[in-house]
Design a protein that fits this description.
Elements: E1 3-7, E2 11-13, E3 16-17, H1 20-29, E4 34-38, H2 65-73, E5 79-84, H3 92-101, E6 108-110, H4 124-133, E7 137-139, H5 159-165, E8 171-174, H6 181-190, E9 194-197, H7 201-207, H8 213-225, E10 230-231, E11 239-241, E12 245-247, H9 251-261, H10 268-283
Parallel strand pairs: 1-4, 4-5, 5-6, 6-7, 7-8, 8-9, 9-10
Antiparallel strand pairs: 2-3, 11-12
Helix pairs in contact: 3-4, 6-8
Length: about 290
């Protein structure tokens, strides 16, 4: 089973997203069995406010639980929804509980670069609920995705507080944490409840001219924590980020090769685990 652990709904025009049918057709083109599809709550800035500069924000980033639930419901065996919250909202933990219990979502995605640190105390009730319910929290670390966000909040060192204070909570950190790769690796090594999402690291290596970053980071992670907590993702069949570029379903194969398949220090079983079995175990999916 191939599970794309990290994907987002994507716009095909400034006013229209790719439909569930188009999204799953893209998955089929790349032989992807299941995709984890992340909602997005970046509070007011993510809503595409009228004061925005359209050169930097052509479309909104926010995607509600209601819309995501309806999107995933078209293909419930193929699309797994994750809610998203922002501590600027009133009682965000209530949104999480509803998303999990009423909409059947399997996790939470946080976007610190919208203006908060991962260890913000306003998120503690959310972390406690997720720990109790056994659902993972995915925390964006590393580069900001679009021009208007704030890079400083993405330092993975703040995730250490979360993983330490909530030892039964599964926390997923993303993108190699670049430019804080050392902090990223230390946080993963120091906390057995921290998982690593390899998504987008090939884009980062190429964009910032850091040759060998992917191979070095993956090798060190395998040496330090093993392959059992590594997850592969692609950002989905369609992506368009002006800071980094765009892709279509052809990228699935390139991503798997660049992030996993080319490494001779991984066994075939290791590669199968990273490309799907680890995610299935984390999410409690049959495989």
């Amino acid at each position: 089973m191939i599970i794309d652990f990290h994907a987002h709904p994507e716009f095909k025009t400034p006013t229209e997203i790719f439909s569930p049918e188009e999204f799953v057709a893209g998955m089929d083109q790349g032989s992807i069995d299941v995709t984890c599809l992340f909602g997005n709550d970046q509070a007011d800035p993510g809503s595409c406010p009228p004061w925005r500069d359209e050169r930097f924000m052509a479309v909104p980033t926010n995607f509600s639980d209601e819309d995501l639930s309806a999107f995933c419901a078209r293909f419930p065996s193929r699309l797994v929804g994750f809610t998203s919250i922002n501590p600027e909202r009133y009682q965000p933990e209530r949104k999480v509980e509803r998303a999990i219990k009423e909409f059947g979502m399997k996790g939470v995605k946080l976007y610190p670069h919208s203006g908060f640190y991962a260890n913000d105390p306003r998120l503690n009730l959310t972390y406690a609920i997720c720990s109790k319910l056994g659902v993972p929290v995915v925390i964006h670390t590393g580069p900001k995705a679009v021009r208007w966000q704030w890079l400083k909040y993405n330092n993975p060192v703040y995730v250490d507080d979360v993983a330490t204070n909530f030892p039964d909570l599964n926390v997923v950190i993303c993108h190699g944490g670049y430019p804080w790769v050392e902090e990223f690796i230390v946080v993963a090594y120091s906390n057995p409840n921290v998982w690593v999402d390899l998504t987008f690291m090939d884009y980062i290596e190429r964009t910032f001219h850091v040759p060998g970053m992917v191979a070095d980071t993956v090798r060190r992670l395998v040496d330090l924590i093993g392959p059992e907590r590594l997850l592969w993702g692609s950002e989905g069949p369609f992506m368009n980020l002006p800071l980094f570029g765009q892709h279509n379903p052809d990228y699935y194969a390139r991503s798997q090769y660049e992030l996993v398949k080319r490494f001779d220090f991984l066994s075939d079983l290791d590669k199968e685990a990273i490309l799907g079995r680890n995610a299935a175990r984390l999410l409690g999916l049959s495989h």
